[in-house]
């Protein structure tokens, strides 16, 4: 029986190209039924990690272990764009892939329905838009029930409508108990779709956890009339058991409950001490801020 959580496990995986370390001792195990966003700057090691997982290149050190069930294909991937025969019809492309993977004939119709490409089965791939080509390629990769699917920058060259459609198809694919891994350097492309996020920077994992938790909790930004007053306010807040962080001439306070109640508490403490506030604002970190903070080693 396959592992119920992670059908693929990378342990201490390192890949070197000469003296250059592309991936450094990576421990990683994306889970079934989840969309995992694999993010990082260009050259961070995302594509190298995917190529090692597919067997296109071998790791210098460490291992990649597949744990799948009987009759289940270990892994499928779409790397560097759809690998299709442009002069053949969509149906013929899917049929070729079906025969190569040993999938039953019934799966072709099922995949076409899932990817919403029933209406273009008779058309040649070269006549399709890029968005439709992506759908066909993902459909072909889904044949024979892979446990893991890897998509490398699948939204490149897509318009906003096609990206939105692709997000929905990615979610559907993961819901078939597939460990769906989507590599991207555009952080917002998978917001609202991804369950987990793995951030690779300079070949190492800097974050691996829930997508929503990556951004971090909202905070309050507090600034008094002058720096001395801000410092005095920080002391008063800490005496009340509130966690504060001094950033320049401002205070950052993390709510341990309802932010509006904390705002009222801060205002009352400041007023009681005769400290005039010039700013008391709610701040929600952005994905971009969280990313920059993560790769610099400082959370927002």
Question: Gap between N and C termini, in Å?
Answer: 42 Å
Mean pLDDT: 89
Order of helices and strands: EEEHEEHHHEHEEEHEHEEHEH
Structural class: alpha/beta
As for the number of domains, it is 2
Strand order of the largest sheet: 5-6-7-3-8-9
CATH hierarchy, class of the largest domain: Alpha Beta
Tally of helical segments: 9
Range of helix content? 25-40%
Main beta sheet strand tally, sense and closure? 6 strands, mixed
Question: At CATH's second level, what is the architecture of the largest domain?
Answer: 3-Layer(aba) Sandwich
What fraction strand?
A: 25-35%
Summarize the structure.
By secondary structure, the protein is α/β, with parallel strands linked by helices.
Task: Give a verbal description of the structure.
By secondary structure, this protein is an alpha/beta fold. It has two domains: 8-213, P-loop containing nucleotide triphosphate hydrolases (Rossmann fold), CATH 3.40.50.300; 217-284, Alpha-Beta Plaits. It contains nine helices and 13 strands. The protein has helices at 46-54, 90-101, 106-114, 130-142, 160-174, 211-215, 227-239, 259-272, 287-296, and strands at residues 8-17, 20-28, 35-39, 61-66, 73-78, 146-152, 179-184, 196-201, 204-210, 219-224, 244-247, 250-253, 277-283. Strands 5-6-7-3-8-9 form a six-stranded mixed sheet, with helices on both faces. A four-stranded antiparallel sheet has the order 11-12-10-13. Strands 2-1-4 form a three-stranded antiparallel sheet, covered by helices on one side. Helix 2 runs parallel beside helix 4 (130-142) and helix 4 runs parallel beside helix 5 (160-174). It is elongated and about 80 Å long. The model has no long low-confidence stretch (mean pLDDT 89).
């Amino acid at each position: 029986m396959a592992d119920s959580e992670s059908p693929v496990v990378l342990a201490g995986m390192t890949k070197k190209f000469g003296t250059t370390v592309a991936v450094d001792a990576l421990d990683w195990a994306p889970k079934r039924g989840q969309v995992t966003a694999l993010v990082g700057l260009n050259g961070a090691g995302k594509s190298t990690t995917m190529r090692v997982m597919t067997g296109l290149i071998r790791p210098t050190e460490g291992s990649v272990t597949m744990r799948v069930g009987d009759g289940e294909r270990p892994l499928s991937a779409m790397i560097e764009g759809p690998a299709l025969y442009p002069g053949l019809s969509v149906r013929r492309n899917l049929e070729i892939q079906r025969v190569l993977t040993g999938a039953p004939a019934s799966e072709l119709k099922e995949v076409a329905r899932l990817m919403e490409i029933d209406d273009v089965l008779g058309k040649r791939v070269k006549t399709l838009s890029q968005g439709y080509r992506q759908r066909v390629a993902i459909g072909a990769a889904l044949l024979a029930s892979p446990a893991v699917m890897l998509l490398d920058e699948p939204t490149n060259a897509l318009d906003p409508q096609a990206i939105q459609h692709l997000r929905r198809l990615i979610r559907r694919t993961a819901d078939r108990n597939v460990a769906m891994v989507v590599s991207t350097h555009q952080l917002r492309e998978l917001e609202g779709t991804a369950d987990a996020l793995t951030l690779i920077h300079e070949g190492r994992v800097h974050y691996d956890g829930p997508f929503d938790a990556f951004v971090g909790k909202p905070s309050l930004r507090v600034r008094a009339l002058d720096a001395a007053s801000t410092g005095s306010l920080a002391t008063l807040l800490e005496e009340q058991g509130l966690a504060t962080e001094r950033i320049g001439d401002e205070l950052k306070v993390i709510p341990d409950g309802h932010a509006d109640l904390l705002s009222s508490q801060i205002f009352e403490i400041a007023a009681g001490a005769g400290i005039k506030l010039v700013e008391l604002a709610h701040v929600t970190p952005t994905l971009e801020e969280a990313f920059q903070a993560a790769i610099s080693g400082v959370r927002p």
